[in-house]
Amino acid sequence: MPLDQSLLDWIAEAMAPIGSITHLAMMGGATLYCEGTVFAIITAEGQLHFKADKLSDAIWDEAGCARFTYEFSGGKMGSMNYRLAPDDVHDDADALRHWAKLGLEAGLRAPVKKAKKAK
């Protein structure tokens, strides 16, 4: 399934008051950045997930937003600390900004990954 450009456009439009949105392709989906900080992913299936962390997990749990999970070959399950966006973010810019800000805050708190040294 190709990346949903209309979803990317909607997110960029709704997030314009906060900052510019860029993305990088990732396994059929995309990693989304606001002013260079990771705040969300779009899966290959077109689902939007916002970044979460220990400080925001309770808010996501209270809203009933499931954690992003995936299956390894062999059937073992894994998860990443991203939460499925509530349905209202797809048609309500204020709701999108509310939940995206939680993702952006989690992204800003995340440790900076060190660049790998060339061999």
Q: How would you describe the overall organization of this protein?
A:
Helix 1 (5-15) packs across helix 3 (93-109). It is built from three helices and six strands; from the N terminus they run H-E-E-E-E-H-E-E-H. The chain has 119 residues and is an alpha+beta fold.
Q: Indicate the low-confidence ranges by residue numbers.
A: none
Q: Report the helical percentage.
A: 25-40%
Radius of gyration: 14 Å
Give the termini separation.
36 Å
Helix-strand category: alpha+beta
Number of helices: 3
Q: Output mean pLDDT.
A: 92
Number of strands: 6
Strand content: 25-35%
Main β-sheet description: 6 strands, antiparallel
Write the element-wise H/E pattern from the N-terminal end onward.
Answer: HEEEEHEEH
The global form is globular
- For the largest sheet, list the strands in their spatial order: 1-2-3-4-6-5
In short:
The protein is α+β, with helices and mostly antiparallel strands. The protein has three helices and six strands; from the N terminus they run αββββαββα.
